[in-house]
Specification:
Strand content: 15-25%
Shape: globular
Strand order of the largest sheet: 5-4-3-2-1-6
Radius of gyration: 14 Å
Number of helices: 6
Largest sheet: 6 strands, parallel
Order of helices and strands: EHEHHEHEHEEH
Length: 142
């Protein structure tokens, strides 16, 4: 298996976002950030939902450097669908069927597949918005 967990691919601090408002809030400080979907979001919300959330947040804050990662849990089929829709940075559990193939396709598209989610501030946590700036700074964002 081609290095199941490539956490070193994550350049910016990660923030778990659950919708457009969270994504815009994560980009608002203007610090580099990785937008990370909720665990398994590809299964219950889909890759097009994710793509539109990221696009709306980037449109609202075009100057903020941001990466985005969709969590597919163990759903290789959803990961393949994401790749077909242009979402090429994914979390897919290492024991998911066809992991190496999904990872190879993502890499050919300029993306990557992580075997697990990176450490992240979850915007659903109490007072997350108040902790956001400190998280981005302490995690290397500024």
């Amino acid at each position: 298996m081609a290095s199941a967990i490539k956490i070193d691919m994550i350049v910016h601090p990660a923030v778990i976002v659950h919708g457009v408002a969270d994504a815009k809030a994560a980009l608002a400080p203007g610090l580099p950030v990785t937008l990370l979907s909720a665990p398994g979001a590809a299964l219950f919300a889909g890759c097009l939902w994710w793509r539109e959330i990221v696009a709306a947040a980037r449109m609202a804050h075009p100057e903020t450097e941001a990466t985005d990662i969709l969590d597919c849990a163990d759903a290789s089929g959803m990961a393949m669908g994401a790749l077909r829709s242009g979402v090429c940075r994914l979390v897919l559990w290492p024991d998911a069927p066809g992991w190496a193939g999904v990872a190879a396709i993502a890499e050919r598209q300029g993306g990557f597949v992580l075997g697990g989610a990176p450490p992240a501030l979850d915007m659903a946590q109490r007072n997350a918005i108040r902790r956001l700036h400190a998280w981005l700074c302490a995690s290397g964002g500024g």
